[in-house]
Amino acid sequence: MQSATKDSGEETPSMLWGLDPVFAAYAKLYVRDILQMTESTQVPGIYFYNSHPVFKVDVLGTVVSKRERDDFFCYGVDDGTGVINCLCWKNDLLKEEGDPTKLGKHTDGAQAGFNPEAELEKLRRAQQSRCHLEIGELLRVRGSVKTARLQREITASVYYKVNDPVMAVQIEWMMEVPQLYRQCYDKPFLLQPDVMGDFAITPLNKATNIIKDFLKQKAMSRFRPYDVQDLLQPLISSEPQTESADQEPVPGPSSFQKLSQLLNQALQLLQDEGFLYCRVKSQEDVYHVTAEDKELFMAVKDVIREDSKRAKYAEKGCHILHILSAVRQRFSLNVSRTALELVLTSLECSSDIISTSENHYILI
Q1: Residue 206 near residue 234, CB atoms below 8 Å
Q2: I want to staple 40 with a disulfide (CB 3.0 to 4.6 A). Which of 46, 83, 154, 230 is the partner?
Q3: What b/e string do you get for 202-219 counting C-beta neighbours within 10 Å, with b at 16 or more?
Q4: 97, 121 in Cβ contact below 8 A?
Q5: 305-314 pLDDT, tens digit each
Q6: What is the DSSP string of 25-44?
């Protein structure tokens, strides 16, 4: 295993992550590497191992700790390199408690033919036995990596107990994972020049990075375009001149026009990423930095707190589309889904909210 440390300035642009096959797969990484991966500065919730973007992992290990709540199990899984918490949500069948008398009645009636209710009860009991694990049993987990409550953990999408009396599954796993490291994970994700092109050095890409770095350094929560316009002036001044000696100069946009166009494109790209949003549209737009806007965070928390009390959302919590609609009605029409997703991720990392299932959130 190689070091997974990665300089944030060397990250591959997020639009190119899909070219790495590791990004779309459940990476079979050791727990130690999952705990040491560095988080992306471009997209929260994405991590890097040796330049490979990772957000889904596949882990096989022994249960060394267990906590159970009404809605989920929390298993501590040890694969021999480290221990990581795995949050495993219960489905509706697991939440229901079986009725032994009902099962016996269905079984007696099934002698005359196929009884769907009895078979469904058997299936439910079998599923319960595969999802209820005790300390010392073998667990396989597939899910997304998250940092919550200041700890790295896995939110399981699939999990089950592995019956491995002769250790055949573990031996196969121990032979497969080192090969994946040698053939894929430990080889850096490198793009060919013809694929990469000038993406990483385009003026627009440089402009967005300059604005991001400036806002983070100054910890600014809001700004106007002219506050950052002069920062992009060197990008315009360094553009190559293509004027020929034997030709008359062709009229074109002035330096100020080029600067304004580059600034507008950069601000639009940052809005598309959710990094910025404009609360009120006016002649002199004021842009708000999503991660620094405390009022937006409070508005999202208020929506989740108030609407979670309604019977419709009491069990699963509020869906992200409902939260987006409510925030737009009560706070600002210009909040995008990408900006909201960034806020929800930050609130979950700070343990203010928790995702009960995919795209459903409830206040802790």
Answers
A1: no
A2: 46
A3: ebebbbbbbbbeebeeee
A4: no
A5: 999 888 888 8
A6: S-B---HHHHHHPEEPSSST
